[in-house]
Amino acid sequence: MRSMARIWVALAALVLPALALGQEPLIEVSGATFRPLPIAIAPPIAQGDAASPAEEIYEALTFDLEVSGLFEVIPRKAFLADPREPLGPEGIVWSRWLDVAAEELLKFQVEAGPQGLKLTWRLYEVATQRQTTSGTLEGRVADARRLAHRLADEMVRHHTREPGAFSTRIAFVRRPKGGSKEIWVSDFDGKNASPVPHTRGISLLPTWSPSGGELAFTFFKKSLEYPNGHPQIWKANLLNGKTSPLVTSGDLNTGAAWSPDGSKIAFTMSRDGNPDIYVINADGSGLRRLTRDPSTESSPVWSPDGKRIAFVSDRHGTPQIFVMDADGGNVERLTRQGNYNQTPAWSPRGDEIAFTARDERYAFDIFVVNVETKEIRRLTQDQGNNLHPTWAPNGRMILFVSDRDGDRALYVGSADGRVQRRISPRDGAEYTDPAWGPFPVTVEAKR
Amino acid sequence: MEASRKEHGGGVGPDRESVLAKRPAPFRWAWVLSVLVHAVVFVGLFGVSLSSGCGGRREPEKPVVAKLVRLGTPREKHLLPRLPTSPPTPPASREAPQVTPGKELSTPQPPKPPEPPKPQPESRPAEKAPPASKSPSPPAQAAAPKSPKSEKSELDDIIQRFASADRVGKAEPLPGLPDGDPFGDAEEAAEGERYLALVQKRLRDHYVLPSTIPETERIRLSAIVRIHVDRTGRITRHVIEQSSGNPQFDAALESAIAKASPLPPPPDHLLRQFANGFPVRFRY
User: Fold this and answer.
1) Quick one: pLDDT at residue B86?
2) pLDDT tens track for A29-71
3) Paired sense of beta strands A27-29 and B278-283, if any
């Protein structure tokens, strides 16, 4: 019995190491590069009087798909498309699209009629020559671009099963040369821009209500007591064009943020020179103080579930991003790199916070910190100063301010930082303080 | 001592003083325990090697994948990350930043030249104010917008870039292995089989996935492919041993493998081991 055991042990001692050593090496490959899908958009087929809106749709659609970060739109100059090629699939010369390395082909036709525009589209997989999806959209002639945005939304939904954010609106501050700051709203691509009534003067830091019907913003109210303006929190109703004050007490009120359920607004209030985070009900009742630190606390933003608030504090000497529970408890420092971190923006998925930071070269750039791992990734670099990020409601794009072209303008880009495009016109005005609005109610309902 | 020896001779049971007397019982346990532990380790190792698809083939050595890194010194912990920049060949560094405003983008993955960082120490005191109210010094490239491009401005631009490249070089030395991982630094480098690391890098260079794979799916993606190479490094065939279940992902792997061929030629000491190919696990 004993000798048997001995033999077993001896065997094990001999064989085990050999087996362990004999394992093959397993090469682990991770960290893929994500490549946008090469897609060709065929020149639009215009019927009736639709040539000009069709071109407008083509242009807007190209912009949307590129800036989504999901697609690489093959430049129109790269292929010799036959404008008479039908919507297909019969009659499509596939070799032509294969030659330009298009993996997908989007074809659309625009008809102009008394009812407005009718956009019929089809999406093909070039390699298999198979139609993968199709649809029809209708709208007013004046809304040609919005039809393009809706088509782009459909494309994002088809590929990612997530909603697109091209039919959303943005708010920002516009200051014409020598003029005063005013809140404006526009489509996400900067088009269809219009000022919000009664916000001229010094209006800053607009923030959307979750329904998209109202904005809260910082307004410098002038009075005898405050000839240069007293910073107050105001609300603007976008439906009826009326503005009303929300918080007027304290020395300084600024940086409002609407809670995701729309019931509360967090903001910075300073009393006796000590700015802290406060929260107030959206109807102006129930003012509560959340932070009680002798240092400066500012720029609150809510997590998408409304349970936490991120903010900036210099309690450890330099401005850093912190998070706390929505009642002010469990304060935790999030950023430990860089010595000037500010303007946090919580991603709609809740996992990341984008912020502005000044790097060791004194350039301001956009960074993103993971809320759990606290790992920081960089989105912009060596392109002037980049500030004040705000997320698209689907979390796939970021809007921010940059002075890379000499003037302060708004840029929209994919959330991985790969694509960045200017959306502000070159009209000499300064564009700052962007805030990306929520999904339109209809899109929200569909989710 | 004497006493205990005697007791041992008597072979009396529950006596704790005599080591010899107790020997038979505890030793049996030790044996059993030892066999059990070895058996568990054995089964564990065997199971792992089976589950990773390489149970059948055994070779006397197990090369470890080395980790090759690009940078000699790690970036200081308190600094914000920088996107990888290619070490400057100055002429190239003049080209890329010519971003036409409004046109194509800014922070591409591929080699990004060190650009004038516009550090302006004198502007430091002003930074106390929030950036919204601070008028940042116009970036260097903003000085040369698309306006009529005179030779002079171009020359200024070049001079400025050289000057800044110099500064960049001092602030951030970028030596190291040219085939190293630009994200890695000396702290992460690991010794091992260099060839495997080169294969890993070559595959990763071509490891491109479509952006359209939803984020929620990405974290679950993993597949194992067995790759066979010949003496020259050419990939003779590959077999997907464990599919990810996502056709887009599997197709992207096939394409990555096709593009990565030829791999570097395997060194002689690995040729025999690679007779049956080697497994590669791709993860998101």
Assistant:
1) 46
2) 888 888 899 999 999 999 888 899 999 999 999 999 999 999 9
3) parallel
CATH topology of domain A37-160: Rossmann fold (3.40.50)
User: How do the domains of chain B map onto residue ranges?
Assistant: 2-51, 195-283
**Structural element, H or E, at residue B2:** helix B2-10
Best interface-test mutation with B: which of A19, A24, A391 has the largest number of B CBs within 10 A?
A: A24
Which residues in chain A have their CB less than 8 angstroms from residue B94's CB?
none
What is the predicted pLDDT for the residue at B24? 55
**What class does CATH assign to B195-283?**
alpha beta
Q: What is the fold of A169-446?
A: Neuraminidase (2.120.10)
Q: How does pLDDT run across A336-384, given as a tens digit for each residue?
A: 999 999 999 999 999 999 999 999 999 999 999 999 999 999 999 999 9
End-to-end distance of chain A based on CA atoms, in angstroms? 70
Our CA-based measurement puts residue A365 at a distance from the nearest CA of chain B, in whole angstroms, of 10
Q: Which of A440, A414, A400 is nearest to A172 (CA)?
A: A400
> B279 CA to chain A: closest CA distance, Å?
6
**Do B208 and A24 make contact, defined as CB atoms within 8 angstroms?**
no
Global pTM? 0.71
Which residue ranges make up each domain of chain A?
Answer: 37-160, 169-446
Query: Which residue on chain A is closest to B168 by alpha carbon?
Result: A361
Q: To 10 degrees, the CA torsion angle through A388, A391, A396, A400?
A: -30
Q: Over 70: is that where the pLDDT of B60 sits? A: no
CA angle B172, B177, B181 (to 5 degrees): 80
Q: Which chain A residue's Cα is nearest to B128? A: A340
- Compute how many other C-beta atoms are within 10 angstroms of the C-beta atom of residue B110: 8
Chain A environment of B31 (Cβ under 8 Å): 2, 5-6, 9
Q: Residue window 29-48, chain A: list those with CB within 8 Å of chain B.
A: 29-37
pLDDT in tens, A74-125: 998 887 777 788 887 888 999 989 989 898 999 999 999 888 999 999 999 8
